[in-house]
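Regression test case RT-17, inverse folding.

Input:
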């Protein structure tokens, strides 16, 4: 392969990289995406909860605003993707029920409800009887819970497929191999393939998830992004069992979520492990997820276990993504989305494509620039 040229080279063909590529191509830029193996991306393991309320962490209000801005963009993004590709992208407005296991959990949910209401987020507290009315499969005796009507879901595997097709239809070239960012004299020049050839590009985006700060991807200007291992399970429910909402719970201090797809598949997640790049499924994590999920939804015990999946979340020092320009001219980051990569796909794609096309930093993305002080380089 000789030298090729494009306006933008994107390292990473996950949902973040592909959605930026698609939007940048729509804005008139020529774009190439390179990824050695997109199936190792966190999107393949992710359950796809779009859950700014029930994933709310105190003291992360800037991130919450970004999450909400992204959630609001989902319906339009999906309508556009589905009309271009003819594919079902797996978006489901199902709401989320957060179940309390005991009185202490119920008190914590009341606090979350009050905190969320103060930020303008809508949720309702539920008694035990109301819980079981909403989800008859829930275990008897649970003391109550919280309904977050606007915490929905997308199937990340369907989304990735649709983004791939839409990006290709918009003229994006995808190369399935490893590349390294080429920096000379403080300026990003493109990406270099393993055979030594260069894809010259005026702008380079690192969207390589947990691998983003590895020297094999880019040896400068990327603050540390560390892999945080997560395991999810895929089960097929018996035909007579139906779940209407995402169900979340903290069972004796251990959190679990159950995300039901329209076809009866459910995704149970997720472990959170600091284990480097090891993606070996851990038996203890499978046991804990099944134990906790089954204790709130006993019928899961009758489901077929169809897959154990392990992925690596891209974690950052402050749990917030790295979005925007770096100290290297022409080098842009779109990584570090940690637990929110699927939720943050629309706002990341729009904001980074705008930056690439016009140089403008979108207001939503401004607090998350990679040069912000609280992130050690
Ligand atoms: N967003 C869910 C998780 O990271 O497990």
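Golden output:
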């Amino acid at each position: 392969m000789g030298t090729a040229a494009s306006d933008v080279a994107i390292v990473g063909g996950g949902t973040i990289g592909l959605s930026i590529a698609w939007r940048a191509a729509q804005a008139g830029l020529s774009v190439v995406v390179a990824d050695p193996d997109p199936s190792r991306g966190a999107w393949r393991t992710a359950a796809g909860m779009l859950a700014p309320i029930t994933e709310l962490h105190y003291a992360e209000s800037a991130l919450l605003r970004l999450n909400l801005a992204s959630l609001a963009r989902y319906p339009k993004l999906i309508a556009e993707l589905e009309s271009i590709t003819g594919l079902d992208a797996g978006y489901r407005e199902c709401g989320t029920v957060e179940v309390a296991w005991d009185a202490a959990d119920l008190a914590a949910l009341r606090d979350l409800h009050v905190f969320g209401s103060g930020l303008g987020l809508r949720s309702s507290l539920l008694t035990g009887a109301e819980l079981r009315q909403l989800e008859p499969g829930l275990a008897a005796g649970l003391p109550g819970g919280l309904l977050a009507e606007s915490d929905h879901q997308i199937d990340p595997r369907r989304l990735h497929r649709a983004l791939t097709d839409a990006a290709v239809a918009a003229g994006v070239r995808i190369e399935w191999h490893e590349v390294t960012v080429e920096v000379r004299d403080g300026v990003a020049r493109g990406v270099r393939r393993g055979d030594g050839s260069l894809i010259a590009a005026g702008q380079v985006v690192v969207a390589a998830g947990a691998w983003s700060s590895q020297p094999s991807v880019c040896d400068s200007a990327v603050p540390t992004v560390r892999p945080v291992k997560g395991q999810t399970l895929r089960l097929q429910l018996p035909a007579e069992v139906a779940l209407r909402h995402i169900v979340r719970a903290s069972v004796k201090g251990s959190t679990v979520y159950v995300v039901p797809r329209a076809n009866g598949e459910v995704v149970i997640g997720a472990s959170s492990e600091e284990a480097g790049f090891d993606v070996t499924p851990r038996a203890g994590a499978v046991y804990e997820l099944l134990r906790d999920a089954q204790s709130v939804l006993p019928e899961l015990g009758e489901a077929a276990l169809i897959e154990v999946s392990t992925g690596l979340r891209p974690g950052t020092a402050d749990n917030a993504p790295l979005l925007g320009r770096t100290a290297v001219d022409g080098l842009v980051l779109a990584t570090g989305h940690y637990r929110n990569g699927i939720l943050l796909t629309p706002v990341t794609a729009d904001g980074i494509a705008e930056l690439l096309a016009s140089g403008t930093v979108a207001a939503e993305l401004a607090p998350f620039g990679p040069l912000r002080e609280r992130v050690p380089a």
